[in-house]
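INFO batch 0412 | record 1 of 1 | parsing
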Amino acid sequence: MKVLEIDYDKYIYPDGISTPEAFGAYLLAHSGRFIEMRYFSGDNCVAPYYIEGETGSKFINPAMVSVFRECEVTVLSRGEYDRRLADLEKNRCVHCAKYKMNGCECGDNIRDNLCLDGKCWHFAADVDGAEYFFEKTIDNRLLLMV
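INFO prediction complete | emitting tokens
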């Protein structure tokens, strides 16, 4: 699904708008007042994967939007998201140095750390006795830390 990214939040296009160019014109036409926009909640999931129905609304000031871009996200039902996450935990987390007999040390935070594409913000692999950690940067890139 194509959405708008404004200040790292993912917004659903307003009704009748389907391109970045049309959204830019929409912002200009509404520059004198706040506009209500629906966004995907980042709670309990990791971008670019979101849970269907977990949205919120924000009023934004069009005059304050200096940069926006179109991006692609995948929206799944809660059941499908949970199934995929459980499969990943069984196959990915077991290879992490932080994985213990009773599961991942991330615990309840696994939904905030493990992306459905297999990237985990706290994954640590034991390679030749050294631990390598991947940390998330502000723009959701992985940074290798030794």
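INFO post-check: The chain has two domains: 2-76, 91-145.
INFO record closed
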